[in-house]
Amino acid sequence: MSKTPKNPFVISEASPIPEQLLTAKELLDEIDDFYSILTSTHCDLYRVVSEADLSQFIKRTKESIESTKESINLTECYYYLQRIAAFVCDGHTKIQTPDTWTPKVFPAEVTLSNNRVFVKSSIGEARIPLGAEIIAIGQYPISTIINQTMEYIEGTLEHYKEEQWADCLSFFLQTKSDLKAPWLVEYIHGGKKSSVEIDSISRDSDDYKTWFRKRVLPSKGIQRMNGKSVPVLILPHLGFDKETFWKLIGDFFESSANEPYIIIDLRRCPGGNGERGFEVIARLMKHDRPEGYSLVSSSVFRVSELYKKYVNYQIECL
Asked: Is 107 found in the same domain as 90?
């Protein structure tokens, strides 16, 4: 295989550079390759959208590029491709971008609910009060930022898309809204409107790493439903060893043993060790086995031809 990849996003061992320019034809070729990959490797591409609708959507996208663009930087290319990925609406088809595109991030974790954005936690020094509602960043009302970016979030369930959007806010600010740090943030807290200028925080900083480690651990919460409090187990990852995981989730299930309902929140969970999933299910079932589940004796993996080419390409480039 050639060591010069045809496309910057599809089968490439190098981190694409946002400022790199593609011609309109190169982007159109990239879209054709992406569509070909989807149709040849996706297990259920037309579960939500029809083949005709997806084909027409891609056709309209290509026509808009042909009529208005001569050259496009990779950031714009990403958004053209991600818009197609999001249109599939399956919750896992997406275009990956390297962290090097945004080595510094917005220093707060937020949550989105009904087009309102609230501060959930701080990364490093708290500059915006927890629970504050963000109403504007830079020159843009938060509603404008949401409206300009939500179409790039894959999935069908609104609460899932809200969670994914919140995770992408820092990326959207710097690449779609072109808002660079420091950011002027307007917010409401305790009924009072305030503003503060905040700087970004590096992904390599201790504060960010500490926040990120805590963020991937299971945690507990409460959801009000029909006037009652329902315990929530938040599982952002399943990549733990058995002993650690049982300790992390054991307290939740013990304290919730007499509750009529619980919620298990997997909206930010990309997967991990399948055995951890079995262990959660085992807590919800009556069974005789001590561990509550049994493992199969063997596994069979299906690997697409495209992925074989990708792996071979990566090895060749080492």
From this structure: no
Number of domains in the chain: 3
Q: Taking Cα atoms as reference points, which of 128, 238, 226 lies closest to residue 185? A: 128
> Is residue 313 situated within a structural domain?
no
8 Å CB contact between 141 and 116:
no
Same domain, 182 and 140: yes
- Kindly state whether residues 91 and 118 are assigned to the same domain: no
Query: Tokens 């970016």 map to which residue?
Result: 149
| Rounded-to-integer distance, Cα 122 and Cα 158, Å | 25
Reported as a single tens digit per residue, the pLDDT across 68-117 is 778 888 899 999 999 999 999 987 788 888 888 899 999 999 999 999 99
**Cα–Cα distance for residue pair 153/93, rounded to 1 Å:** 10
Range of the domain at 234: 216-282
Which residue type sits at 42? H
Q: Could you identify the residue written with the tokens 């938040």? A: 234
Q: Is residue 56 domain-shared with residue 72, that is, in the same domain?
A: yes
Phi and psi at 255, nearest 5°, equal -75, -20
Q: What is the pTM of this model?
A: 0.79
pLDDT tens sequence across 293-304: 555 555 566 666
Chain-centroid distance of CA 314 in Å reads 24
Q: Tell me the C-alpha to C-alpha distance, in Å, between residue 22 and each of 12, 49, 69, 176.
A: 15, 29, 10, 18
Closest CA to 107 of 89, 95, 120: 120
> Which of 180, 203, 226 marks a domain boundary?
203
Alpha-carbon distance of 147 to 141, in angstroms, equals 10
Residues 91 and 121 in one domain: no
The whole-chain average pLDDT of the chain stands at: 84
Dihedral angle sign, alpha carbons of residues 129, 130, 132, 138 = positive
Torsion over CA: 106, 112, 117, 122 (sign): negative
Q: Which of 140, 174, 203 is the last residue before a domain boundary?
A: 203
